[in-house]
Every structure is written in structure tokens, then in C-alpha cells.
Amino acid sequence: MSDFEVLRTLSFGQYLPTGSILHRLDPRVRLTGVVLLALALMVNPGPAVGLLGIVLALGLLLLARVPLGHALRSLRPLLPLFAIVLALQMLFYPHRAALAAGSPLVWQWGPIVVSAASLVGALAMMLRMVAIVLLLTLLTGIADTTDLVHAVEGMLRPFQRLGLPAHELALVLAITMRFIPLLGRELERLMKAQAARGADFGRGRGNFLSRARRMLPLLIPLFLAALRRAEELALAIEARGYAGGRGRTCLVRLRMRPADFLALGIALALAALLVFLDRGG
Hints:
By secondary structure, this protein is mostly helical. It has helices spanning 6-9, 27-43, 47-63, 68-73, 79-91, 95-100, 116-142, 145-156, 166-196, 208-215, 219-239, 258-276, and strands at residues 105-109, 112-115. Strands 1-2 form a two-stranded antiparallel ribbon. Helix 2 (27-43) packs antiparallel against helix 7 and helix 3 (47-63) runs parallel beside helix 7 (116-142).
């Protein structure tokens, strides 16, 4: 039955309470730091930026005492997506301008052209995607759902004067993040139930398309289960008389310490380094 334990094999989104120095930071600093680094990776398309981003992410994972094997497992489900993005980047790259600028021609088959510039661009994009996934794995490893909700609500609270519903947005985030493991457990239950009736999901056998085809019978019951749980949650919220965040107080009050300001400054410096590094590459 280990083949059907989806949550155990999924490392992305799992909180690891290792008690590291990153875990002790203000949740707003943890969230802001990861977002700044991810945005910096998106802004700068230079080829060296993705590699440096991976090095930074791995260093932060070690600092957070998150096992590297646990973090690298988060990349496995995204390998087909990486391959598709890599192929699209190479195929739809502006080869004519690259060849005119002196980029060598690597391969050509009819209208399909692959230049050295397209290979470099595709590699840079893939490295940046890997770095961003590792950063998100770091965030979920050092901040649980409650921390992230407090961080989002605390960061959005100043905008309440402009009419932004900070508490409601934080509640939506909490519900969304807690729905993911619920759907994972529901998927495990459905897979075990159908396997008991003779269904063969063939996990680990066949190519990506054949494995995806075997998972199609699970989509409709999983969708119906999600709707049922959403309806139960709506009824529970209504039964408790929830009427929004107006006038509500917080049990946890966030306060920035000197270590938090120092960590935020380091995150800003690293993000600036990623933005301006190899800008001409």
C-alpha cells in the first residue's frame, strides 16, 4: 500500500519543525524574504542568476536543517513540466535575431531551429524554476499554515483603511492550504478503494501519459469529494456565526526583533544581488 501513500511521498508543502534559526524568525520576515528572492529570480533572466539562486536556496535549506533529499524530492513531480518549458523555450526563441547576432546554429530540422542562444536561455529558465521551487519548499518547511496566515494578515492589516479585507484574505489562504492535505488523504482513500476492486494504477510503470490516463477515473470522485468538503466547511462557518474580521482581535501579536530586521536586510541584499548580477547575460 506504500504506492498509494501520496502525502508521504510528497515533500513540497510539509512543515519541518527543526527549531533552526530561520524557524525562530518573525513569520512576516520568512514570507517576505522568500518572496523577494523568488521575484528577483523572475526579474533577471541572466544564466548565472538561476545557478546562484539554487546555491542560495540549498544554503538556506541547510541553515534551516531541512534534509536536502527531502527538498530535492519536491522537484520530481515537476520534471515533466520542466521538460515542456525547456522544449517550448528552445522552439519559440527568436532564433533569427540570435543567428544574426552571431549565435551558432546547433540543430535544424525543417522550420525547427535550435541555436546556442536558445539552449542558454532554456537552461537559464530551468535553473530559475528549480531555484524557485526549492525556495517555496524552504518556505513551507520553516513556516506552517498558522505562521503564514499570521504573516499575510499582519502584512495586509495596514491596507484595511483602504478597504482591503485582510482577515478574510488570510482566512482564504488558511482554508486553501489546509484543503491540500485533505485532498491528498481523499486521493489516497480513493486509490486504495479502487485498487481493492481490481484497479491497476501502475505507479512507476509506463510513461507519463499512460500513468496520467490511469489516474483519470479518480478525477470525478475527487472533484465531488472536494465540493462536499467545501459545502461542509461553509455550513460550519455559518453555524458558528462568522461575519468577517471586523472587530475581531488576534491571539498572536507579531513583534519584530533586531534579528528579524537583520534577516530582512540580508534578504534585501541577496535579492538585489540576484537582480543586478549578470544583467547583460
